[in-house]
């Protein structure tokens, strides 16, 4: 089933900023919101975006309430996640699928721990989401990250100008090309979702993967868990991020575990936890071309 492509953003649109996971630093949040305002957006903060409950941005109930409020407010045209970390998995069962499915579709942007929310929205609201920089992240607020923040905003305002995503430093582990909807996100979160309604599979899809700060044996364990569960069965191709902070032989583990799938694999793509962060639509059809080092969408991700 094709996912719903929400409307693109327009200058003056109201957008929500929420925290789904770990607690948010006020300074970074303010700087990120200023960047959104400079792009012509009217920023509305979630009620509990600066709350703290242990390591989390408020209780599970508060974080679920903020996501629900932002998603169900028809005046809010997009939802931006402030940061990742951990915690989104904890509140998924507090979300009402019928409420989200009945609300006006809108883009949601985030990465890492936000994979859990993105998979939930794909399963229960049937909507396209975006794997990209978060509002209170270093990439979004720093001068060095400006090109990536600008690219994310361009994707939301003018999606027809963001059809081809390329990474000159990417490398083909298995050469080839394939076309299918892009699914995936953070490797650790995808493994954590196995056995849940949002686990899904990669059948008939191009898989996006990335992770951070993992020793090789941990990467091997995650790949093996997904493989044994059949999650990769029928996958058409794999595009992988830069393995920020992982062991130097991460690509060797990737090749050994996923190479036997016999599908194109491109690694070192600018997605995930590195300083260079492309914004990748999830749920939209694209062509992976390892020779060109590109992921090219067949249509804009937003209507």
Structure, briefly:
The chain is 30% helix and 20% strand. The chain is an alpha/beta fold. It has 2 domains: 14-157, Murein tetrapeptidase LD-carboxypeptidase, N-terminal domain (Rossmann fold); 163-297, Glucose Oxidase, domain 1, CATH 3.50.30.60.
CATH topology of the largest domain: Rossmann fold
Structure classification: alpha/beta
Distance between the termini: 17 Å
CATH architecture of the largest domain: 3-Layer(aba) Sandwich
Q: Which blocks of ≥5 consecutive residues have pLDDT under 50?
A: none
Please identify the top-level CATH class of the largest domain. Alpha Beta
Q: What amount of the residues lies in strands?
A: 15-25%
Helix content: 25-40%
What is the string of SSEs from the N terminus onward? EHEHEHHEHEHHEEEHEHEHEEEE
Largest sheet descriptor: 8 strands, mixed
Number of strands: 14
Q: Helix tally?
A: 10
> How large, in whole angstroms, is the Cα Rg?
18 Å
Multimeric status of the protein: single chain
Q: Can you give a write-up of this model?
A:
- Belongs to the peptidase S66 family.
- With 303 residues, the chain is α/β, with parallel strands linked by helices.
- It folds into two domains: 14-157, Rossmann fold (3-Layer(aba) Sandwich); 163-297, LD-carboxypeptidase A C-terminal domain-like (Glucose Oxidase, domain 1).
- It is 30% helix and 20% strand.
- The strands form two sheets. Strands 6-14-13-8-9-10-11-7 form an eight-stranded mixed β-sheet.
- Strand 9, helix 9 (216-228) and strand 10 (237-240) form a beta-alpha-beta unit.
- The relative contact order is 0.16.
């Amino acid at each position: 089933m094709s996912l719903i492509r929400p409307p693109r953003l327009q200058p003056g649109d109201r957008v929500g900023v929420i925290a789904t996971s770990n607690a948010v630093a006020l300074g970074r949040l303010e700087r990120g919101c200023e960047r959104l305002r400079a792009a012509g957006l009217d920023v509305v903060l979630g009620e509990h975006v600066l709350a703290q409950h242990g390591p989390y941005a408020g209780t599970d109930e508060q974080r679920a309430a903020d996501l629900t409020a932002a998603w169900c407010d028809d005046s809010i045209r997009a939802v931006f996640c402030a940061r990742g970390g951990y915690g989104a998995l904890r509140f998924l069962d507090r979300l009402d699928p019928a409420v989200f499915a009945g609300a006006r579709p809108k883009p949601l942007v985030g990465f890492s721990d936000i994979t859990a929310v993105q998979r939930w929205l794909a399963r229960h609201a049937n909507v396209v989401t975006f794997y990209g920089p978060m509002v209170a992240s270093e990439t979004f607020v720093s001068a060095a990250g400006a090109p990536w923040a600008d690219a994310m905003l361009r994707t939301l305002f003018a999606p027809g100008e963001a059809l081809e995503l390329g990474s000159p430093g990417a490398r083909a582990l298995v050469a080839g090309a394939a076309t299918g909807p892009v699914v995936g996100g953070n490797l650790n979160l995808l493994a954590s979702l196995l056995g849940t309604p949002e686990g899904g599979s990669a059948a008939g899809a191009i898989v996006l993967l990335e992770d951070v700060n993992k020793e090789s044996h941990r990467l091997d364990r995650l790949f093996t868990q997904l493989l044994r569960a059949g999650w990769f069965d029928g996958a058409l191709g794999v595009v992988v991020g830069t393995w920020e902070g992982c062991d130097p032989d991460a690509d060797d583990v990737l090749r050994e575990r996923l190479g036997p799938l016999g599908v194109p694999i491109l690694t070192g793509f600018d997605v995930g936890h590195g300083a260079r962060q492309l914004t990748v639509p999830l749920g939209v059809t694209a062509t992976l071309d390892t020779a060109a080092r590109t992921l090219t969408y067949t249509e804009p991700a937003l209507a």
